[in-house]
Amino acid sequence: MIEISGTTRIFPVIGWPVEQVKAPALFNAYFQQHNIDARVVPFKIEPERYCAAVRMLMQTPNVGGIFVSIPHKPGTLEAVDEATSRAALAGACNAVYRQADGKIIGDLIDGEGFVRAFDRTCGDMAFDWRQSSALVVGCGGVGSAIAASLAARGIARLGIFDTHAELAENLQARLEAGFPATKVRLSPPAAKGYDLVINSTPLGMNQDDPMPLSLDGVKPDCIVADCGMKTEMSKLLVEAQQRGCRIQKGKEMLIEQAPLYLDLFGWPGVTSDDFRVLEAL
Q1: Helix (H) or strand (E) holding 113
Q2: 111-250, what's its fold?
Q3: Mean pLDDT by 10 residues, the chain (281 residues)
Q4: Which of 44, 103, 255, 268 shows the greatest Cβ crowding within 10 Å of its Cβ?
Q5: How do the domains of the chain map onto residue ranges?
Q6: Rounded CA separation 196/253 (Å)
Q7: How much is the pTM?
Q8: How many CA atoms lie within 13 A of 44 on its CB side?
Q9: Checking DSSP bridges between strand 95-98 and strand 223-226, what pairing results, if any?
Q10: In this structure, which topology does domain 9-108 adopt according to CATH?
Q11: How many Å apart are CA 209 and CA 45, to the nearest integer?
């Protein structure tokens, strides 16, 4: 077991709530296996105190960086000195780190983690990005990141939905400006006609949550993904599997973006397979 001392590098995971986060267990197991003096610790911080907390923590020398959880990803843009281009495009950050010159940077790697996981889900089956369509339900930090990464991959048609219409409209405008080759439409939360459907809302974290989208008329070869991690098999994934669809669990995105976090935090060259070994233990 890793002991925390004055030399330990601390990496907060900040959320509101924070009970659902899986990063501490995954990364702390990695640190322990590799004898790294670092620890990931959950911090439950309400939105009105979030930006001040980020600035204070990132001025602390033994804080190596921050994992950002819901609902703080969009608000992180105001807490950092500079955001990467993909974070600015999506309008959110999920990783905060310090450059050598002391500048505090916000990045967004949810989307890259998702598409890497999607590549693994597809396996040997080629996914024709330029002839395919996807629906992203939920336009917060995770959904915005995924939508931007799908557009960057060259998805032909992209439907987006959020119960807060302004969020979806703003994301549509940014995506249309950044990726003119992708047709972006505001769409209802219904899977019919899509090749890939993604739930990036909090719905599904609890067993009594309503379905985030309708699977009526879903194509049998559609891939249904849920980004939630509190419940491994949400009602959405269970029903999709019953309908014969392939599914992608939320933890897959975390595992695939784990090396991206470590790269930003100072440990380059790690692969997702290093974390899959931990999952199998």
Answers
A1: helix 110-122
A2: Rossmann fold (3.40.50)
A3: 86 94 93 95 97 97 96 95 93 94 96 96 89 97 94 97 96 95 98 97 86 96 93 93 96 95 96 84 47
A4: 255
A5: 9-108, 111-250
A6: 15
A7: 0.91
A8: 5
A9: unpaired
A10: Rossmann fold (3.40.50)
A11: 24
